[in-house]
């Protein structure tokens, strides 16, 4: 689909022009300084200050992002943390058990329950959360008064910067057993209710919390894409007799398409990660049956039960599947003719 | 608590009418406008109303709270007693100080490391530029996993130190990429002329690049600061000593688990102090810095997010 042989007119090309979000703002304005011609030593001398500047960040990333990958070997061990204070020593002395941990996990009903909860939450968020910022962005974009726009944006961005602890505390004050809703119900002679501890509605509660906290923040990307649409396009469409809704359909939405595709890719790639902190904070109140997801399953078995081999194996399963998902989602995005997270 | 934007926008003074509508655009219907306003107002209310209740209840006296039967919606008889008690030394005061210090030190450290790295990567074709960029980018696709990271922090001996709350999360690759995108957009002529005048890279970064990137520096500083201020998970993993806990973790104990703050249990029991007001005051302390700072940086957000996605 990506190679249409029909030459497109200028305006149309503009309409589908990649937004900076999707295509990256790196324009190679700087000269690629004769890379082949200089000897390694010359380049090293020339760039040594730049290299030194990147060093602290690179060391930290190697230490905390790359080095722990090796620690995943404990997934194939019956790891015993009490052998020594030093994790490396413990790893060297712990007995190897092959894929025993993985076999146990696949036979563990708690793991499958966590998997099911994770997937249900992912789909709920996709349906109930993902469209909200898009609709809000369209709404804000159609507001003409700059003052109204600025105030609305300031308010909508705000909750994104609150910690999950605070967001859940706020929800507790509104919907909890001692919260405002129960308070009002009781004052009018009904029974109070505690939405915060109800396992049946818990997944909807989580989604509502996510919307409250982050939907406003999600607007930004779409607003940026909308701001880059040339007004001429709207005018041309209007001249051709397109009404307000037709213009949204033929001009506005095509401008958003690459961004939506990119965010969908990111979201699908992250499908197994559904609000770790948010759920961990509420896990005890609701019970693991409804609240356990893969991340909390790993935390529970490792940090709480000290069964590190088992927990690391579960984490490894999640990590490998996630990586596969990201790559697959990217592939799909490329096939659809959109920019993915990285270029081919 | 409405967020007030400091300066009126560049479009002119606030009360000005909307900019003229293009000739071809239909005039919006009354109902359409009303509907739009209603949806926006509801969305803003959904955010502001809970915050309003929390703030008002934290400022209410024991009697007002008892009369309301719990949370207070209409302020009557403002009192600062809950804050006075909490900030008069003790558990919450200590936690707030810990949080402030970690936020300051952590943000300074993160910004230093990130700005240096972003500048070091801002010249395409420099030695190793591609490799280093790839190394950083790859981390956005995988994570080593909770358990190995946990074991690593223990092995490094960071347990029960504040370094465990700073170092593992000190570098955000995303933030480095945003900074780098900005630094790359600064006109090369400026940098070259400075180099001809004999300025070294550090000097160029400090005297030319950073002053020109104030907006993005403000945004990224806010991101890092909010990250440190809001973090609680690492503290719950690595700190066993109750007296070291930051504010968020104390908030979990006081608000979520409904424990009475150490030292105030007595006055809450005897009824001089409302337990609810104390809880709300802790929440206000956690949200105040964020709510005050973020609107100031707000107008730069969009630029920051734009350059966020950069490929190597």
Order of helices and strands of chain B: HHHHHHHHHHHHHHHH
The SSE order of chain A reads HHHHHHHHHHHHHHHHH
Instruction: Describe the main β-sheet of chain A briefly.
Output: none
Known CATH architecture of the largest domain in chain B: Orthogonal Bundle
Can you identify the CATH superfamily of the largest domain in chain B? MetI-like
Class per helix and strand makeup of chain A = mainly alpha
Q: Which percent range describes the beta-strand content of chain B? A: under 5%
Provide the helix percentage of chain A.
Answer: 55-70%
Q: What gap, in angstroms, lies between the N and C termini of chain B?
A: 42 Å
Radius of gyration of chain B from CA coordinates: 25 Å
Based on the structure given, which CATH architecture of the largest domain in chain A is correct?
Orthogonal Bundle
Radius of gyration of chain A: 26 Å
* Mean pLDDT score of chain B: 87
Short description:
Chain A has 344 residues and is mainly α. Chain A has helices at residues 10-15, 20-23, 40-71, 87-93, 100-106, 109-128, 131-141, 146-157, 164-175, 180-187, 202-227, 231-239, 244-269, 276-286, 288-291, 294-304, 308-335.
What does this structure look like?
Chain A is an all-alpha fold and 344 residues long. Chain A folds into two domains: 52 residues, no CATH class; 256 residues, Orthogonal Bundle (MetI-like fold). Helices cover 68% and strands 0% of the residues of chain A. In chain A, helix 6 crosses helix 11, helix 12 crosses helix 13 and helix 16 runs antiparallel to helix 17. The longest helix of chain A is centred in the first third of the chain and has 32 residues. The two termini of chain A are 16 Å apart. With 312 residues, chain B is mostly helical. Chain B has two domains: 47 residues; 208 residues, MetI-like fold, CATH 1.10.3720.10. Chain B is 63% helix and 0% strand. In chain B, helix 1 crosses helix 15, helix 4 crosses helix 11 and helix 9 packs antiparallel against helix 10. Chain B is globular, with a radius of gyration of 25 Å. At the A-B interface, helix 2, helix 3, helix 7, helix 8 and helix 9 of A face helix 1, helix 4, helix 5, helix 6 and helix 8 of B. Chain A: One of its GO terms (cellular component) is plasma membrane. Chain A: One of its GO terms (biological process) is transmembrane transport. Chain A: Belongs to the binding-protein-dependent transport system permease family. Chain A: It is found in: Cell membrane. Chain A: This is Sugar ABC transporter ATPase. Chain B: Keywords: Cell membrane, Membrane, Transmembrane, Transmembrane helix, Transport.
């Amino acid at each position: 689909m990506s190679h249409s042989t029909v030459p497109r007119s200028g305006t149309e090309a503009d309409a589908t022009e990649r937004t900076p979000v999707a295509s990256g703002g790196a324009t190679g304005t700087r000269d690629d300084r004769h890379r082949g011609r200089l000897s390694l030593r010359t380049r090293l001398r020339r760039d040594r200050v730049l290299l030194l500047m990147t060093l602290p960040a690179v060391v930290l990333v190697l230490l905390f992002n790359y080095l722990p990958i090796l620690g995943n070997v404990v997934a194939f061990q019956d790891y015993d943390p009490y052998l020594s204070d030093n994790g490396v020593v413990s790893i060297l002395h712990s007995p190897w058990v092959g894929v025993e941990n993985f076999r146990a996990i696949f036979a563990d009903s708690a793991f499958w329950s966590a998997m099911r909860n994770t997937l249900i939450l992912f789909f709920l968020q996709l349906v109930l959360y993902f469209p909200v910022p898009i609709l809000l962005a369209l709404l804000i974009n159609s507001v003409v008064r700059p003052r109204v726009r600025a105030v609305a944006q300031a308010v909508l961005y705000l909750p994104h910067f609150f910690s999950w602890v605070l967001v859940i505390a706020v929800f507790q004050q509104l919907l909890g057993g001692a919260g405002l809703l129960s308070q009002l119900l009781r004052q009018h002679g009904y029974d109070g209710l505690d939405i915060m501890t109800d396992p049946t509605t818990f997944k909807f509660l989580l989604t509502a919390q996510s919307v409250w906290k982050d939907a406003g923040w999600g607007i930004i990307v779409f607003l940026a894409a909308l701001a880059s649409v040339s007004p001429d396009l709207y005018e041309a469409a209007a001249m051709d007799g397109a009404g307000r809704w037709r213009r949204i359909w033929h001009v506005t939405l095509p401008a958003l398409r690459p961004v939506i595709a990119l965010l969908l890719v990111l979201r699908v790639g992250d499908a197994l990660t559904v609000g770790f902190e948010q759920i961990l904070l509420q896990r005890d109140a609701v019970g693991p049956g409804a609240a356990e997801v893969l991340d909390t399953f790993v935390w529970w078995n490792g940090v709480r039960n000290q069964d590190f081999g088992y927990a690391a194996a579960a984490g490894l399963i999640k990590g490998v599947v996630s990586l596969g998902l990201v790559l697959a989602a990217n592939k799909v995005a490329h096939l659809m003719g959109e920019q993915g997270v990285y270029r081919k | 608590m409405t967020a007030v934007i400091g300066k009126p926008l560049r479009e002119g003074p606030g009360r000005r009418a909307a900019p003229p509508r293009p000739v071809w655009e239909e005039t919006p219907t009354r109902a359409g406008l009303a509907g739009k306003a209603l949806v926006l107002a509801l969305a803003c209310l959904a955010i502001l109303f809970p915050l309003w209740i929390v703030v008002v209840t934290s400022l209410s006296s024991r009697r007002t709270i008892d009369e309301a039967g719990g949370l207070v919606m209409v302020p009557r008889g403002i009192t600062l007693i809950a804050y006075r008690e909490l900030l008069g030394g003790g558990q919450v005061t200590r936690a707030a100080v810990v949080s402030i210090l970690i936020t300051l030190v952590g943000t300074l450290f993160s910004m230093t490391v990130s700005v240096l790295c972003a500048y070091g990567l801002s010249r395409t074709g420099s030695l190793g530029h591609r490799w280093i960029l790839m190394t950083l980018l790859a981390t956005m696709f995988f994570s080593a996993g909770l358990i190995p990271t946990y074991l690593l922090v223990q092995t490094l001996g960071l347990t029960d130190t504040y370094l465990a709350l700073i170092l593992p999360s000190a570098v955000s690759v995303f933030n480095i990429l945003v900074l780098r995108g900005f630094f790359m957009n600064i006109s090369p002529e400026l940098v070259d002329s400075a180099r001809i005048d004999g300025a070294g890279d550090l000097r160029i970064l400090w005297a030319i690049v950073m002053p020109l990137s104030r907006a993005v520096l403000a945004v990224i500083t806010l991101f890092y600061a909010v990250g440190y201020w809001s973090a609680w998970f690492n503290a719950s993993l690595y700190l066993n000593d109750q007296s070291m806990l930051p504010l968020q973790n104390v908030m979990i104990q006081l608000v979520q688990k409904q424990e009475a703050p150490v030292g105030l249990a007595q006055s809450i029991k005897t009824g001089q102090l409302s337990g609810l007001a104390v809880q709300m005051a802790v929440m206000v302390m956690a949200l105040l810095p964020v709510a005050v700072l973020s609107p100031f940086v707000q107008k730069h957000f969009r630029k920051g997010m734009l350059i966020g996605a950069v490929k190597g």
